[in-house]
Amino acid sequence: MSFDFKVKDLSLHEAGRHQLRLAEHEMPGLMALRNEYAGMAPLKGAKITGSLHMTVQTAVLIETLTALGAQVRWCSCNIFSTQDEAAAAVVVGPDGTPEDPKGVPVFAWKGETLEEYWDCTDLALSWPEGDGPNMILDDGGDATMLVHNGKSWEAAGQVPPTTDEDPEEFQVFKALVRRTLTEDAQKWTKVAAQVKGVTEETTTGVHRLYELAKTGDLLFPAINVNDAVTKSKFDNKYGCRHSVLDGLNRATDVLIGGKVAVVCGYGDVGKGCASALAGQGARVIITEIDPICALQAAMEGFQVARLEDVVGEADIFVTTTGNFNIITAAHMQQMKNKAIVSNIGHFDNELDMAGLAKIDGVVKTEIKPQVHEWAFPNGNSIIVLSEGRLMNLGNATGHPSFVMSNSFANQTIAQIELFTKPGEYDKQVYVLPKHLDEKVARLHLGALGAQLTELTKEQAEYIGVDVAGPYKPDHYRY
Ligand code: NAI
């Protein structure tokens, strides 16, 4: 079998395969779905383009989708998040060799340029038969945005001219769409017409989907995987509780105990990060705009403050808001010498990296890849992780397998749902029904040795639920 792919080095496949084997053991949800659907191929005929961090855990997701019958093409959704050995293992496949790869086409490596990033996204969306995917699996919405903007700019006859206001990333994106339209003026209309649906992994991508649905511009049905309870209340929270420390440690190895850490945002990700930093003995300060989340932080014993009032006190900063311009260049100049500045939200615009680079006399020194010291003319410097991109994936390897098994079991179920029941979903954004959420949790209990109590029939009647669930109304918040 021969196919196109672009990864760093196929000779890394064996190292990747070993890690995949261990990850499979830690991903009981995905492995249970492989068993449940063995021989049934519910995704036969599905051509899935995935845009999601190309890590070891994602490799297990990809091989689950193919085990269920799908064809897959993949790119990463961030320039720094690929684990090259995982990408190599997926391309080579369990039965292939670097000379004769038998796996899945992947277009991703750690340290892509922005141009390469968008090329890879385009390649993952461009199937060899000259058409596109019929399903998208997205994280952050970049693949979905390429199809939507591509189609609407196609209809308007041109990509709007680049302006100075456009962030660099958007300029590169526009250049890519311009090129694709020169090659095939109908490309994105054709791709959009085939897509049966998208399943979206993260808060930021889901936000984009709801915006499209609100204006009536969503081109196909979408499942919001993020807001499955077994996704955002686990991956965003407990995943970040693990991987925020991993990112800080691998990048700087600074002792966290006794330090002052500011966490901007106290949503699911912020809660996980704050708890991890406090667990290491840091004094944690939270910034929030939402009074409910601010009160939650106060109830947990965290100081809640405005960034400008504490910016000179802290040793470590982590932004978790999914919003932009949270830490400005002016904030950075007021920080303590050698303060560590990082973002774990989906996009790098939480930190004003462009503003930082424009400071008069600022000098950037690479300490090692994805760790940079920015020195100011007054002699102070700050350490910025992953150039402002999500540090748990740029400086470490993202969330551990067990938590991703929850997220990716939801992704797999959502893909089967949209692919096999196209008539049941409109061009809207849906969440998975609660009984499937409960199923995902159930699939993970055994591996932890947890024994679930069963309701008696009488107890079930008394609280008004079915013995087999769902156990909570949809409005329950967990
Ligand atoms: P969320 O909506 O639960 O939390 C964000 C919080 O930030 C909210 O409570 C909001 O009120 C607050 N916020 C907004 N603007 C703010 C401001 N100017 N100052 C202070 N606080 C502000 O969202 P969630 O699920 O916690 O996700 C946050 C980001 O992290 C998103 O971009 C998401 O896509 C990303 N994410 C990253 C992961 C990773 O592995 N790096 C994993 C999961 C999510």
TrEMBL record:
It catalyses: S-adenosyl-L-homocysteine + H2O = L-homocysteine + adenosine. It holds the Pfam family AdoHcyase. SUPFAM superfamilies: Formate/glycerate dehydrogenase catalytic domain-like, NAD(P)-binding Rossmann-fold domains. Pathway: Amino-acid biosynthesis; L-homocysteine biosynthesis; L-homocysteine from S-adenosyl-L-homocysteine: step 1/1. Belongs to the adenosylhomocysteinase family. Residues 236-398 form the S-adenosyl-L-homocysteine hydrolase NAD binding domain. NAD(+) binds at residues 202-204, 236, 265-270, 288, 323, 344-346, 392. Its main location: cytoplasm. NCBIfam families: ahcY, PRK05476.2-3. Its cofactor is NAD(+). It is found in: Cytoplasm. Binds 1 NAD(+) per subunit. It is an enzyme of class 3 (hydrolase). May play a key role in the regulation of the intracellular concentration of adenosylhomocysteine. It comes from Flexivirga alba. This is Adenosylhomocysteinase. Keywords: Cytoplasm, Hydrolase, NAD, One-carbon metabolism. InterPro entries: Adenosylhomocyst_ase-like_sf (IPR042172), Adenosylhomocysteinase-like (IPR000043), Ado_hCys_hydrolase_NAD-bd (IPR015878), NAD(P)-bd_dom_sf (IPR036291), S-Ado-L-homoCys_hydrolase_CS (IPR020082). Its EC number is 3.13.2.1. Substrate binds at residues 55, 139, 201, 231, 235.
